[in-house]
């Protein structure tokens, strides 16, 4: 053992109180906590992926720039391949954005929102400025513009539809922000396939716009980790300096291409999720003491008169896992992902029991 080695003298002081990301893993629960697609990945598409992947393909490094996948995405979303970058989940792209632009600087975030903006910004030594949403969770547009005007603010982050509140931002508000700030505006559209108007049409007019999308939600590929980013070539070139060379593995690249070429089963699944979402909202509204917030995503945020941890633990005790999002900005709130019909029925039945006994 080295006598000279003193780990605590070497660690980053700013990360001393950071806690490793910990997503609870429970076998055999009705899993409605992470906004995944509850339907199994279509077997016929999986068969096509396996046909594409041969023994030779696995021995070689993947295409670092994922040319084939970017071409498939370009056809899907009508954005040139040069304006598309793919990542190991949009999580990786969020970290890359923070590393490329906010290290030692600041970024403004419309909160409450997806927690990884806080985590990745901190890893990149950026300082997050919270711009709280209004009472109805709409954007404080002027607050975001004012925050972006502060010294050293490099990025403004808006999730639309927003996680966990579920509401989407009107494109006019996004455009007003894009027009008035000297900062990169990241619009995270992870849930766009479930609702909300996309900012993609604004890409040609604003070179400070970055859009994030993912295969983890509508396309049922959370386990394969594929996200993508759309932006002008100036921003893409900066991000390429940060990108890990072989960030997206061979299998995930092939899978994402196969999804893009076989959209109907995924569109069917989205349709089913949207129908179930409306049914779930109606069921939740019938439960006394539950307030449901409007959503354009594949999840629903609701508030109960009981403490959120009581509801969360009560459900978990009965085999249903949802997300407790209770906090300063979201008192007594919980978030449930829309599951299959059967999962949703179990959730409603158990929630009624928990609330009834509360
Ligand atoms: C708003 C938002 N962005 C990004 C992600 C992460 O997506 P990915 O699985 O592509 O990393 C999530 C996941 O829940 C999310 O809610």
Please give a structural write-up.
By secondary structure, this protein is of the alpha/beta class. The chain folds into two domains: 20-41 and 265-357, Aspartate Aminotransferase, domain 1; 53-261, Aspartate Aminotransferase, domain 2. Helices cover 39% and strands 16% of the residues. The protein has 13 helices and 13 strands. It has helices at residues 7-10, 43-52, 55-59, 67-77, 89-101, 116-123, 141-148, 171-180, 233-242, 250-261, 264-285, 308-317, 341-357, and strands spanning 30-31, 84-87, 106-111, 127-132, 153-159, 184-188, 209-214, 227-231, 290-292, 299-304, 320-321, 323-324, 333-337. A seven-stranded mixed beta sheet has the order 2-8-7-6-5-3-4, with helices on both faces. The chain has a four-stranded antiparallel beta sheet with strand order 9-10-13-12, with helices on one face. Strand 3 (106-111), helix 6 (116-123) and strand 4 form a beta-alpha-beta unit. The longest helix has 22 residues, at 264-285. The chain is globular and about 55 Å long. The termini are far apart. Bound molecules: pyridoxal-5'-phosphate. Pyridoxal-5'-phosphate binds next to helix 5.
Care to give the gist of this entry?
The protein is of the alpha/beta class. Helix content is 39%, strand content 16%. It folds into two domains: 115 residues, Aspartate Aminotransferase, domain 1 (Alpha-Beta Complex); 209 residues, Type I PLP-dependent aspartate aminotransferase-like (Major domain) (Aspartate Aminotransferase, domain 2), CATH 3.40.640.
Features:
358 residues; alpha/beta; Aspartate Aminotransferase, domain 1; Aspartate Aminotransferase, domain 2; seven-stranded mixed β-sheet; four-stranded antiparallel β-sheet; 39% helix; binds pyridoxal-5'-phosphate
């Amino acid at each position: 053992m080295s006598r000279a080695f003193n780990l605590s003298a070497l660690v980053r002081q700013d990360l001393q109180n950071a806690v490793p990301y910990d997503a609870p893993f429970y076998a055999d629960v009705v899993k409605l906590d992470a906004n995944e697609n509850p339907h199994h990945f279509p077997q016929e598409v999986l068969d096509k992926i396996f046909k594409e992947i041969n023994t030779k393909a696995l021995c070689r490094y993947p295409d670092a720039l994922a040319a084939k996948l970017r071409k498939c995405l370009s056809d899907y979303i009508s954005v040139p391949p040069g304006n598309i970058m793919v990542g190991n989940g949009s999580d990786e792209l969020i970290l890359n954005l923070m590393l490329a632009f906010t290290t030692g600087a600041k970024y403004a975030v419309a909160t409450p929102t997806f927690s990884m903006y806080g985590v990745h910004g901190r890893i990149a030594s950026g300082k997050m400025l919270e711009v709280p949403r209004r009472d109805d969770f709409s954007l404080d547009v002027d607050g975001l513009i004012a925050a972006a005007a502060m010294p050293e603010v490099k990025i403004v982050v808006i999730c639309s539809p927003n996680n966990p509140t579920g509401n989407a931002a009107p494109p006019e508000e996004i455009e007003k922000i894009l027009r008035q700030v000297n900062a990169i505006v990241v619009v995270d559209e992870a849930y766009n396939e479930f609702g909300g108007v996309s900012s993609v049409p604004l890409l040609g007019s604003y070179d400070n716009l970055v859009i994030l999308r993912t295969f983890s939600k509508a396309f049922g590929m959370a386990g394969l980790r594929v996200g993508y980013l759309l932006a002008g070539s100036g921003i893409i070139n900066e991000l390429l300096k940060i990108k890990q060379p072989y960030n997206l593995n061979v299998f995930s690249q092939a899978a994402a291409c196969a999804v893009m070429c076989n959209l109907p089963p995924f569109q069917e699944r989205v349709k089913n999720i949207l129908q179930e979402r409306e049914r779930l909202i109606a069921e939740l509204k019938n439960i006394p003491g539950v307030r449901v917030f409007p959503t354009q995503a594949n999840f629903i945020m609701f508030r109960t008169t009981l403490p959120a941890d009581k509801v969360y633990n009560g459900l978990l005790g009965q085999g249903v896992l949802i997300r407790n999002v209770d906090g300063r900005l979201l008192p007594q709130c919980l978030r449930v992902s829309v599951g299959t019909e059967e999962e949703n029925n179990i959730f409603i039945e158990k929630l009624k029991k928990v609330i009834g006994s509360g």
